[in-house]
Amino acid sequence: MKNTYESPLNSRYASPEMQYLFSPDRKFTTWRRLWVALAESEMEMGLPVTQKQVDELKAHVEDIDYEAARRHDIRFHHISTDEVYGDLALDEPRKFTELSPYKPSSPYSASKAASDHLVRAWHRTHGLKTTISNCSNNYGPYQHVEKFIPRQITNILAGIRPKLYGQGLAVRDWISVEDHCSAIWTILTRGRIGETYLVGANGEYNNIDVLRMILKLMGRDANDFDHVTDRPGGDKRYAIDATKLQTELSWEPKYTDFEEGLAATIDWYRAHESWWMPDKAGTEEKYRKQGH
Questions:
Q1: Does residue 226 have an active-site annotation?
Q2: 137-139, strands of its sheet edge to edge
Q3: Average pLDDT in the 184-212 region?
Q4: Does 235 participate in catalysis according to the annotation?
Q5: Cα 6 to Cα 268: distance, rounded to the nearest angstrom
Q6: Among 5, 66, 85, 108, the one annotated catalytic
Q7: What is the pTM of this model?
């Protein structure tokens, strides 16, 4: 299988948009902080939320000076998540849209919902030039080993059996981090002020199918994993309808072959052991104490 996936954070392949947004001389400090917060905590945090996580979230929020952005007429883009909408039934065709009601399932996702409301309040009350994007689950390089996909990949690379929450029936809507970044850039440059856009790539898979795809790509037996206790309050299904973003701003995902993207992600973790290995033992110990 030909590997055409391009890492968003590899300077050899990075798009002009990525190079611009992440270059140190750009005035996107707050934007970059928000992106890092999302990438580091996107979907797979174990519960309960720790005080350390609360303190880190508070630090990120306190770093954001909304008044300065308003005073200097700076556009403010807030990167959020589909977790704020709660979950969907496994057997229903419905997907989240910009009109879906907020129904966060955990204190963690409730804090993300609160940040969305805060941004909208600054727009309505103080005229801050805002846009919001709510994205589905990201995957790709540089994702922390506590997240579902890199945890399974690095477990296999480290000689540890992969772990599957419950029966693995929870469905997530996967999108390449590169496609997420291209969507953010599109919204930043062409999105209407005050609007919200949902970002997704029609990549719905349940966890057991994703794990078995990883096992296949890494030459392992399809049942070479352990079932562990499901997380409390785990959402059943996320699914994004990105019609507004696609029709209004003419955005389309580029990396839609999920298996190909997984293969490239596996290659990246295999080649960058020095990046993820220092966090591996501590992360697995945390999960062991939580029964995961």
A1: no
A2: 137-139, 171-176, 204-206
A3: 97
A4: no
A5: 10
A6: 108
A7: 0.80
